[in-house]
Amino acid sequence: MSIAPVLAGDPPSASSVASVRVLFFGKVSDRLGRELTLGIPAAGCPLSRLRAELCARLPGAAEALAEPGVRAAVAQQMVVGDTAWVRPGDEVAFFSPFSGG
Questions:
Q1: Interval 60-76 mean pLDDT
Q2: Least packed by Cβ within 10 Å: which of 37, 56, 70, 80?
Q3: What is the CATH number of domain 2-95?
Protein backbone atom coordinates (compact mmCIF):
# COMPACT_ATOMS: atom_id res chain seq x y z
CA MET A 1 0.00 0.00 0.00
CA SER A 2 1.20 3.51 -0.68
CA ILE A 3 -0.10 6.59 1.09
CA ALA A 4 0.52 10.30 0.61
CA PRO A 5 2.88 11.46 -2.11
CA VAL A 6 4.66 13.58 0.49
CA LEU A 7 4.18 14.51 4.14
CA ALA A 8 1.69 17.27 4.81
CA GLY A 9 3.05 20.79 4.58
CA ASP A 10 5.74 20.06 2.01
CA PRO A 11 5.60 21.52 -1.51
CA PRO A 12 4.67 18.89 -4.10
CA SER A 13 7.86 19.23 -6.13
CA ALA A 14 9.05 16.00 -7.75
CA SER A 15 12.60 16.71 -6.67
CA SER A 16 11.52 17.04 -3.02
CA VAL A 17 9.78 13.67 -2.79
CA ALA A 18 11.34 10.40 -1.68
CA SER A 19 9.93 7.34 -0.01
CA VAL A 20 10.41 4.99 2.89
CA ARG A 21 9.09 1.51 3.46
CA VAL A 22 7.13 1.21 6.70
CA LEU A 23 6.68 -2.25 8.22
CA PHE A 24 4.36 -3.30 11.04
CA PHE A 25 4.78 -6.38 13.24
CA GLY A 26 2.88 -8.09 16.05
CA LYS A 27 -0.36 -6.53 17.24
CA VAL A 28 0.46 -3.37 15.30
CA SER A 29 0.28 -5.32 12.02
CA ASP A 30 -3.03 -6.86 13.10
CA ARG A 31 -4.47 -3.34 13.09
CA LEU A 32 -2.53 -1.63 10.28
CA GLY A 33 -1.45 -4.37 7.89
CA ARG A 34 2.08 -5.56 7.14
CA GLU A 35 3.63 -2.69 5.19
CA LEU A 36 3.22 0.45 3.16
CA THR A 37 5.30 3.01 1.31
CA LEU A 38 5.16 6.58 2.54
CA GLY A 39 6.37 9.70 0.77
CA ILE A 40 8.74 11.90 2.76
CA PRO A 41 10.78 15.01 1.96
CA ALA A 42 13.98 14.25 0.01
CA ALA A 43 15.97 15.71 2.91
CA GLY A 44 14.35 13.24 5.32
CA CYS A 45 12.33 13.93 8.47
CA PRO A 46 12.26 13.03 12.15
CA LEU A 47 10.51 9.82 13.14
CA SER A 48 8.00 11.91 15.11
CA ARG A 49 6.80 13.51 11.87
CA LEU A 50 6.48 10.18 10.10
CA ARG A 51 4.56 8.74 13.06
CA ALA A 52 2.24 11.77 13.14
CA GLU A 53 1.55 11.40 9.42
CA LEU A 54 0.71 7.71 9.86
CA CYS A 55 -1.66 8.58 12.71
CA ALA A 56 -3.36 11.27 10.64
CA ARG A 57 -3.82 9.10 7.55
CA LEU A 58 -4.40 5.53 8.77
CA PRO A 59 -7.53 4.67 10.74
CA GLY A 60 -6.53 3.12 14.04
CA ALA A 61 -2.86 4.10 13.77
CA ALA A 62 -2.93 6.55 16.67
CA GLU A 63 -4.23 3.86 19.00
CA ALA A 64 -2.01 1.08 17.64
CA LEU A 65 1.20 3.12 17.79
CA ALA A 66 0.39 4.47 21.28
CA GLU A 67 0.00 1.01 22.82
CA PRO A 68 2.39 0.38 25.73
CA GLY A 69 5.60 -1.28 24.62
CA VAL A 70 5.35 -0.41 20.92
CA ARG A 71 8.88 0.15 19.62
CA ALA A 72 10.39 1.49 16.43
CA ALA A 73 13.44 0.75 14.32
CA VAL A 74 14.93 2.92 11.58
CA ALA A 75 17.25 1.28 9.04
CA GLN A 76 17.11 -1.91 11.16
CA GLN A 77 18.38 -0.10 14.26
CA MET A 78 16.21 0.12 17.37
CA VAL A 79 15.49 3.70 18.34
CA VAL A 80 14.37 5.25 21.59
CA GLY A 81 11.90 8.09 21.29
CA ASP A 82 10.94 9.82 18.07
CA THR A 83 14.00 11.97 17.38
CA ALA A 84 15.71 9.53 14.98
CA TRP A 85 16.16 10.94 11.49
CA VAL A 86 14.44 9.00 8.69
CA ARG A 87 16.22 9.24 5.34
CA PRO A 88 14.90 8.40 1.87
CA GLY A 89 15.14 4.69 1.23
CA ASP A 90 15.19 3.79 4.93
CA GLU A 91 13.03 1.02 6.26
CA VAL A 92 11.02 1.98 9.33
CA ALA A 93 9.43 -0.70 11.49
CA PHE A 94 6.91 -0.47 14.30
CA PHE A 95 6.34 -3.52 16.46
CA SER A 96 4.69 -4.55 19.66
CA PRO A 97 6.29 -6.82 22.25
CA PHE A 98 6.27 -10.43 21.15
CA SER A 99 5.39 -13.37 23.35
CA GLY A 100 6.14 -17.01 22.96
CA GLY A 101 9.31 -18.95 22.64
A1: 95
A2: 80
A3: 3.10.20.30
**Cβ proximity of 4 and 53 under 8 Å:** yes
User: pLDDT tens, 14-31?
Assistant: 457 899 999 999 999 999
Q: What burial letters (b/e) apply to 58-97, b meaning 16+ CB within 10 Å?
A: beebeebbeeeebebbbeeeebeeeebebeeebebbbbbe
CA–CA separation, 9 and 101 (whole Å): 44
CB atoms within 10 A of CB 22: 26
Amino acid at 63: E
Distance CA 37, CA 18 (A): 10
Domain ranges of the chain: 2-95
pLDDT in tens, 27-52: 999 999 999 999 999 999 999 999 99
